[in-house]
Amino acid sequence: MNPEKIKVILNQKDKLVYIKLVGEFDEDHAEQAVEKYQEVLDEIEEKEIILKKVLYDITEAGDATISARRIFASFARNVSNKYKGLRVAYITGSRLAKMVSIFIHRLSRNLGEVRYFKNEAEAREWLRGE
Fold first, then answer.
1. What is the mean pLDDT of the chain?
2. What is the reported pLDDT for 35?
3. What angle do the packed helices 66-82 and 95-108 form, to 10 degrees?
4. Residue 16 and residue 14: Cα distance in Å, rounded?
5. Which of 25-29, 54-58, 99-103, 123-127 has the lowest average pLDDT?
6. Tell me: the pLDDT tens digits for 86-102?
7. Which segments of 1-130 does DSSP mark as H helices, in order?
8. Looking at the predicted structure, is the pLDDT value of residue 77 above 60?
9. Rg (Cα) of the chain, in Å, rounded?
């Protein structure tokens, strides 16, 4: 997999995970993305950080196959069950990316707050609670 296809970064100070997805995702890409995200979640657990916020940058994301969407939704459901009350911000670049993220989010049954933004500055401002 192209290492730039997914980026997952932990910001310990802000208790935030930043995830950037680039290009289209099939089942294999989705599984690899989930593995990278899980590595960061393992680090969070090891360092006893209380995760409060997730920022998805999907401005450069393409379509995802149905099986990839199911993988993402299942993982998101597990994350939202473990980390209750997450604030989740999506930066969307296209109508398609937003529709896919809404679909995945609904399948995940996340009980936290979710918002969609056109740029990173607005998303980060909302995540800070401003």
1. 86
2. 95
3. 50
4. 5
5. 99-103
6. 889 999 877 767 777 77
7. 27-46, 66-82, 95-108, 120-127
8. yes
9. 13
Domains, the chain, ordered by start: 6-127 (3.30.750.24)
Which stretch of DSSP H or E encloses residue 13?
none
Average pLDDT of span 68-90: 86
pLDDT of residue 17: 93
The model's pTM is 0.85
CA 104 to centroid of chain Cα atoms: 10
Report the Cα–Cα distance between both ends of the chain, in Å, rounded: 37
Q: Which of 111, 88, 71, 93 is nearest to 19 (CA)?
A: 88
Amino acid at 119: N
Rounded to 10 deg, the angle between the 27-46 and 66-82 helix axes is 10
DSSP 109: T
Q: Which residues of 3-13 are buried (b: 16+ CB within 10 A; e: fewer)?
A: eebbebebeee
Long-range contacts of 31-35 (CB under 8 A, 24+ apart): 31/71, 32/1, 32/5, 32/6, 33/5, 33/6, 33/72, 34/71, 34/72, 34/75
